[in-house]
Specification:
There is one protein chain. The chain folds into two domains: 40 residues; 110 residues, OB fold (Dihydrolipoamide Acetyltransferase, E2P). It is an alpha+beta fold and 196 residues long. The longest helix has 21 residues. The protein is 21% helix and 34% strand. The strands form two sheets. Strands 2-3-4-7-6 form a five-stranded mixed barrel.
Length: 196
């Protein structure tokens, strides 16, 4: 079965002061505007082009604040003064060239108690000079006053200048101390990149 279409009836209810739907096309001012636009389409298009051109020229001629991200540095270079690391590397690898020579070495003082081997044996006090990387130089010939400069056990926080003579042994050396005095770390200037 085919459905039958229902017929709709349009009813216009007149509203006072408003033109009716059938009367809109007959409205004189609207009709005149349509005729004006049709006759002067090229002129209106020309005016629109001129307005857009003026806006573009004005926009391009005024200096705009720009942020050129590619030319702005992400980092800046600064010089920073940093403490130097203390290293015994040159003494450990080339100790033969310092044999029987008096030199001064910077480092931290280390006092260690080593238990005796036998039953009832006493602990042995060992004294070392230590660098920032854990390398140790065994110190000998210390006076009682110099031993008092060492911490009770462990490593000192401060840096000392230890003067002495390198005494070579088989594949190693001891450092025979002649003087210990408070020292200071050397400082160096490092160039660093920091965020801008």
């Amino acid at each position: 079965m085919a459905r039958k279409r229902k017929k709709t009836i349009k009813v216009e209810i007149p509203v006072p002061g408003m033109p009716s739907a059938s009367n809109i096309k007959k409205n004189v001012p609207t009709r005149q505007l349509e005729i004006f636009v049709k006759k002067n389409r090229q002129m209106l298009l020309g005016v629109l082009v001129v307005v857009v051109a003026v806006a573009l020229i004005y926009g391009l001629s005024t200096p705009a604040e720009t942020h050129d991200i590619q030319n702005q540095p992400l980092t800046k270079t600064v010089n920073v003064q940093v403490p130097e690391n203390i290293s015994f590397d040159r003494y450990m690898t080339g100790y033969q060239q310092y044999a029987d020579k008096q030199i001064t070495i910077k480092g931290m003082l280390l006092h260690r108690l080593v238990e005796g081997l036998g039953r009832g044996s006493l602990a042995v006090h060992e004294y070392y000079l230590v660098d920032d990387f854990g390398a140790e130089i065994h110190l000998t010939g210390l006076t009682e006053a110099e031993k008092m400069m060492f911490p009770e056990t462990g490593k000192s926080d401060t840096v000392y200048d230890v003067r002495g003579i390198v005494k070579t042994k088989y594949k190693t050396f001891d450092f025979d101390v002649t003087d210990i005095s408070p020292g200071a770390r050397g400082m160096t200037i490092v160039t660093k990149e920091v965020p801008a």
